[in-house]
User: Fold this.
Amino acid sequence: MNRYIVSFDQLRSQDQPLVGAKYALLGEMIGQLDDPRVQVPAGFATTAQAYRDFLSASELPQRVEQRLKGVDVEDIGALSQAGSDIRQWLLDAPLPQLLIDQITQAWQTLGLDDALSVAVRASAVAEDLPDASFSGQQESYLNVRGLEAVFSAIKQVFASLFNDRAIAYRVHRSIGHLEVVLSAGIQQMVRSETGSSGVMQTREGNTGFAGLFDICSVFGLGEPVIQGRVNPDEFHVSKRLLSQQRPAITSRSLGSKSIRMVHASSDDPGQSVMTVNNDPHQRRRFSLNDQQVTELAGVGAVIEAYFGQPMEIEWALDGDDGQLYVLQARKLTPLNSDTQVVERYLIRERGTVLLEGRSVGQRVGSGRVRIVRDHADLATVEPGDVLVTDMTDPEWEPVLRRLSAIITDRGGRTCHAAIIARELGIPAIVGCGDATDRLHDDQLVTVSCAEGDSGRCYQGLLDYEHHSSRVDSMPSLPFKVMLNVANPDRAFSFANLPNDGIGLARLEFIIARMIGVHPKALLHFDEQPAEIRRSIELRSAGYPSPKQFFVDKLVEGIATLALACGDKPVIVRLSDFKSNEYRNLIGGRQYELNEENPMIGFRGASRYMSDSFRQCFELECAAIRQVRQQLGLTNVQIMVPFVRTLGEARQVVELLAANGLARGDQGLQVMMMCELPANALLADQFLHYFDGFSIGSNDLTQLTLGLDRDSGVVAHLFDERNEAVKVLLKLAIEACQRAGKYVGICGQAPSDYTDMAQWLVEQGIDSLSLNPDSVLDTWFYLAESLPER
Assistant:
C-alpha cells in the first residue's frame, strides 16, 4: 500500500480513517461481498495523509485557521468570501510530486487511458466524530478524461471542503476545520448516460418503514437526482415479497424527468457533463422496467444484509452492457432513533390548496413565503420563513436552518432539499413544478407533509397541533383497536401506532387519489373525446394500457396497506362512490346519471350487479385477486357496502365467487357493511351470506333518522348516539354474537365520541376501527374508564 494511494480492492471497512467511509465500504464490497449481483466499478483513492501533506506543503493549515477565525457563518456575505478565498488557495497550491507519481502508477495499473472516463468524488475522513454526517457537502466531477484532468479534479475536490455549507456545518457542530480531511476517489465511469441511474434507500425514505426499498431513478447520470434538478421516477419494493420471489413492486410514481445529464467533450472537469432535454416519449415512460427495479432491489437486499443495517446506495445501469453497478453505499441513520415515540401533526382546519408536490418530513410548518431565485436573494430570508425556490443549493445550509418549511419546483425525495429538511426536522414539498411562479413574497401559507405522500401548501396560517406520545407502555384493552385508513400513502406512518390491523380501507379513496378516472372511460378509452384521452394518457403514462393502469394502481394501493400491517387483517371495502362522486372523475359525466339524492341511489351492491357497471366491478375483483393470490397477501379481506336486500346479499357473494373471490378460499372472509336499518333488523338472515359485520354508523344514523348527512340544514340533528340508532346497533352486535361471527364498527362515532366508544365496548363489540388521529386519545380514555373484565 502506497503512502498516498490505495486501490479499492485493497480496502476494508476498518480503513475508514484512511480513506473515509465511502471508499472503505466500496472496498469491503469488492473484496468481501461474494455475490455476482453486486458489481462495483474499479478505482483507487487518495489517503487522508495525501490531503494533509498537500495542505502542509503550502503552509495552508495556518492560513485557513486564521482566515476562518471570527467569521460569522450567519453572515452570508462574510462566509461566502472566506470560503472563496480558501478554495482559491487550495486550487493554486501544487500537488506533491510523490502524490502525482503514485496516481500515475495507479492509473496505469488499472489500465486506464485518456479515452476512458472516470468520476472523481470526495470521501470525508473524520476520526472520533461518529455522529457527524458529511454526505453531499463536497463536489463530484464526472466524465473526467486523462491524467491532467484527474489532477485538476482532485484539487477541486480538496477545495470543496471549504464550500459555504461545509464550513457552516462544522461551526454549528463545533467541529474543527482541520479535524476533517478528504480522500478523493477515482472510479471508472459506468455508461449510464445511455441507461439510467439514481439512489436507493433500503427503507421507505419518508417514514423509515423498514419493510421497503425506496428507489429514485432517471435517465442518464444520477447527479441531477442528488442535486434536486429533476423530478425522478420513484418505486417502492417490498422486502417480504422480494424474499418470497413474488411480484414485489408496490408503488410506481412517474417523474417528469424533463432533463438528463450526459457526457460532454470538454477536458475541463468542471465542464465535462451537460444536461439535455428529454423528449416527450422519454418523459412518459419509466426509466427502469419492472425486471430492472426488482434486480436493483435484490442488490440492495444483499448489501443491507451484509452490513446489517439500512443503507443508501447510489447505482447506475449501463445502457451498453445492461449491467447494474453500485457506485456508492453509505450507512443510514434511522429517522427516529426512538421507535417507541409517535410524533403526530394534525391540521385542525382546512384551507385553499395552493399547490402540491412530494412530501418530506411528516410535519407541518407555516410562515411567510420568501422566493429565492439565486444566492443574492438569501439575504432577504428571515427566521420562520417558508423558502420557495427552483431547487436548493448545498451552499445555502446556513440559511435553511432558519426556515419553517421548504418548497421546491424540482427534485425527488432523495434530493438535497429533502435530505437537509429531514436533517433539520422541517417539512419540505419537492417537485411542485411551478411553485416559484404560483406563490409570491410575504404570502402567508401552511405547509403540510403530514397527510401522506403528497405534500400540500395551504393558503393562510392554519391551526395545527403537534403531539408526541410513547407507545411502549400502552395499557391493555379487552377488545381490538383497528384503523380507518383512506390513503395508502400514510399507511407506513400509521404502522407505529398500536393497532390490530385496518378495519376500513376505502377502495374509492384509492381510485380517487391514485387513478382519478372513471373506470368505464378506461375500459372504452378509444371512444373518449380527445381532451379526455389526453388526460387519461397523462395519468396512465408508463403503464401497458389504461385498463391495466386501473388494476395495477389498485393493486399498489391495496398491497401497500396490507404490507404496512404485516400479518394483521386489512378489511378492504369495495368501491362505494355515489353517482355524483363518479361524475366528478375524469370521463365520468358521460356514464353517470344525475340523481336527485345520490346518497340513497345507485351505489353499493346494486351497482356491482348492474349490466352498466359489472365490467368495472370485475376490475376491482381482478386487483384484489392479484393481491391475495399472486402477491400472497391473504391478510386482505373484503367488505361489501350498502346491501339493501337478502337477494342482493346472495347475488353479490355469488358474483365475487365467479370472479375468483369465493368465501373461505385461502382464508378469504367477506364482510358486510351493516349500515341500513334493514341490515340490523334482519341481521341473522344477512349473516348467512357473510363472515361478519362492520357497522357503518354514519349511513345507519342518516337512514334511521331520515336525514341527509350531506345537508347542512339538518346537520344539527345528526347524532350516532341517538337511542334509535343504539337499538339497531345492539341488534347487529347480538346477532353476530349468536352466530359466532366478527362484529366491529368502522363509522365515525367512536372516533368522535369516546362515550360512544365506551358504550359499544360494553355491548361486546369485537373491535373499534378508529381514525388514526384519535387512536391514542381513545385508547387511554377507554383504558381508564372501562371496568376490568
Q: What stands out?
A: The chain has a mean pLDDT of 90. The first helix runs from residue 16 to 32. DSSP finds 30 helices and 30 strands in the chain. The longest strand covers residues 117-125.
